[in-house]
Design a protein that fits this description.
alpha/beta; Aldehyde Dehydrogenase, Chain A, domain 1; Aldehyde Dehydrogenase, Chain A, domain 2; 2 domains; seven-stranded mixed sheet; five-stranded parallel sheet; binds nicotinamide-adenine-dinucleotide; Aldehyde_DH_dom; oxidoreductase activity, acting on the aldehyde or oxo group of donors, NAD or NADP as acceptor; Ald_DH_N
Length: 487
Amino acid sequence: MVDTYQNYVDGEWRDSETGETFEVTNPADQSDVVGAFQRSSSADAAGAIEAAAAVEDEWAETPATARGTFLRETAKRMDDRAEELTETLVREEGKTRTEAAGEVQRAVDIFYYYAERAKDYAGERQEPSTTDQNLYYVREPMGVAGLIVPWNYPIAIPSWKMAPALATGNTLVVKPSQDAPNVLRKVFECLDAAAEETGVPDGVVNFVAGGGEEVGGEILDHDAVDTVSFTGSRQVGEMIYEQATDSHKRVQTELGSKNPTVVSASADVEEAADVVAAGAFGVTGQACTATERVVVHDSLYDDFVEALVERAESLDVGPGLDDPDMGPHVSESELESTLEYVEIGQDEGATLEYGGERLEGDDYDDGFFVSPTIFTDVESDMRIMQEEVFGPFVGVTSYSDFDEAVEIVNDVEFGLAAGIVTQDHSEANRFVDEADFGVVKVNEATTGLELHVPFGGMNASSSETYREQGEEGMDFFTITKTVYDNY
Ligand code: NAD
């Protein structure tokens, strides 16, 4: 018997008016059905947006400390249920237990962080040019936030959008990904209980599951939505940006990438292989910050490839619930897409050095498992070095002088996260200056972020409008009002 789960709209759990649902299954085992979720219509989304709009003034006028209390009470409940949230995340998305526990903890910490930031984020008084004047500015909430999120960090990403939106006095509607909606639905159970305890009005937070065009499309078009924050693929994100700015909304999109790591002549080969393997194969390569291109100094190339292949060979791949080193792809279509790029790479003349196969056997046959993939003899203009492959997939090329390495690094349309492994301080500094990426890492995997500093991409990885996370994450959801008060 499959459990059916509802939307959360205007303070209550509701069925969609369509009467239809869709099922979510475990990517490690298709016979394990996670649940059925509402296949909502644009009318369902409109109902949620209107509920959020009806209380936007009341929530905006709620003192920031009270908004912070709501976030803190939500965080406590999430923390109390951390183990359950972790298991839910593993079952629907496929991450390993360790990876999922880290993501759940991150989401809890984000709610706590913005619970405290809420009261510090107000504005500033400046010295006026005349006497007897107060000159200051305040930040006001934008209104209703429409949040559209992907499946790959299905609790952390919505948390880093919802918490700053709420802290700054916005109401919101969030559309989860159809591949992994359950962990976010459980966050809404926590929000619901916290709202009841702290007297938060119905309609401040809303969760509507369903298709991109129906639910997402309504968020992009509805007049009552003031801001749209989207994380997802470049293809969908670019369309969303056009559609939502056409209807005069403030929009932020954070998209895919093709992230490089340079292994400098001064690097320790074993350390470099650890850094690259963590960035490329961690979370099954399904991170927007995953390493997909490695640019290695000639002098280390053969040793590095050998060390990276050793890392790939030693990875224990299996169902996330068993906590192996690497779990499955989230879905059949993501698995197919990775396998298609394996073929493309071979057709382009690159050498398949390791992996690139669907895994078979008792543990694997009901899931979407692939072996980690390493290509060598790649050229920067090949599709496998230009297009995002959302799996454990990496191409390794070489360079002879540092200018050439930087040129290869920047030879993509994307610009999210770039890394270098080096013991040379001046090379590291040049890399930080010259890499056209929104996140730059020295001697660390391209994946992994701190929650209290800004995050976002450059070029095709982002709308480049606002940053997420940290204090800057609140800017997107507010507008400044300047006051000249003569007394
Ligand atoms: P996706 O673009 O397919 O979907 C993202 C969301 O958009 C989903 O909720 C989907 O239902 C919705 N959507 C789809 N069509 C829509 C439409 N026409 N109108 C409105 N909404 C629509 O992305 P995905 O496969 O869920 O996620 C993987 C992608 O996300 C990768 O490209 C990855 O790099 C990117 N990503 C980026 C970041 C970042 O911060 N830069 C973080 C995580 C993931």
